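Step 1: inspect the first sequence and its tokens.
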Amino acid sequence: MSTGINTVVTTRYWHLLDNGKVQCDLCPRFCKLREGQRGLCFVRGREQDQIKLFSYGRSSGFCIDPIEKKPLNHFLPGTPVLSFGTAGCNLACKFCQNWDMSKSREMDTLADEASPEMLVSAALEHQCKSIAYTYNDPVIFAEYAVDVAKAAHLKNIKSVAVTAGYICPEPRKDFFRHIDAANIDLKAFTEDFYHQICGGHLKDVLETLVYVRHSTDTWLELTTLLIPGENDSDAELEKMTRWVVAELGPDVPMHFTAFHPDWKMMDHPATPPKTLTRARELAMANGVRYAYTGNVYDPKGQSTHCHQCQATLIARNGYWLEGWGLDDNGRCSNCSTPLPGVFESRPGHWGNRRVPIRMAS
């Protein structure tokens, strides 16, 4: 399908070096490129002495998902979200579970095209409350994501970013001012893990988390994929969860999700469910008020409870909502304690459906 979209656009964050190379300043990789070279993300590269984005308006596919799949448990529960991604990534995580898209070096992966206006029309047609930039990291297609978010806000549709948060301070401001909710991967809490397994640095992600939590109106939730023997020790989880409470506050939800062997980590076992339960309990003991398990069957660990009276506020069975204990103002029906997040007076009923769609030309 061809829609006549200009899929190559000049980006803003770059500068010319004294040695003639052009440095991309979008993320802390700071790729330094000769004419015709692409950055590690592959979708940004040097052309005519500028850094350009080569995947604007192009996607590896579009799908309607439950918002809980992002995962977001405190943002418009039960509603459908129009999800899409492009190709490439600015990290190199050996455990990537979307590696066919995030590690792709083939532009043919991006077989579908959609302008921001087309995406908004599709979201309206399918009664989606939000659009999610996901599957690969939206930081690398920030210009496209921001244009979609601007068009979506004109129609009262929210924007959701599922990201690793690996982005520099100035583009960070431009990106998150248009994002209504974000789930940011806190992949581990050691520099060694980020450097050796992801090809990045922990400190840059922590800076993004603090910025989003304290300097934006973006609703924030965190996800940590627990990999046996790599980032699941009690000592590391203690340090991580104490940092979250101290630096982000007790109301930022944390999701601990199960790893399954994939891409370059096929030699690691899947995460035992008891590891996720242990992480959740440890987080809550350290002051995290809303901690969840993911990628396993665990209604208790995936439901939302009032931190004050322990009443069940949102009962979940997978992506299905089976109980609602909030009043019309997002407060506990039992004790009137507010539940942090973004809620409507009644939940959605999308359930666990996953519906691929094609864009109308």
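Step 2: inspect the second sequence and its tokens, then contrast the two.
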Amino acid sequence: MTLTEIATLLEAVSFTKLKLDDIEIQSACGCDLLSDVLAFTKEKTLLLTGLVHPQVLRTVEMVDLAGVVFVRGKEPTEEMVVLAQEKRIPLLSTLHPMYEACGILYRAGLAGNSELKD
């Protein structure tokens, strides 16, 4: 599933000027604990989170995640947008709460991390 399809499903807006059609997403993870993101997510996963903090981008970069969707209408700071653009990390925001956003993506066929083979 491409990030464009995900953005459409979640009625999300993008904050970076990256071509979302070119970014293929294999799995997603909803999480607000960065330590859990580090411990349990697999690379190329899309992170859904309510955390709006520059450390989120550092974590995404460390794990090599595919991008971030901020839930509950939260938006990244300008500092985060600049850093994400430099690092080529897509940032999106949806008004859906995390539970619903994850459910929408799961129902549309996007796997969770536990469904991926190592």
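Step 3: confirm your contrast with the notes below.
The chain has five helices and six strands. The radius of gyration is 13 Å.
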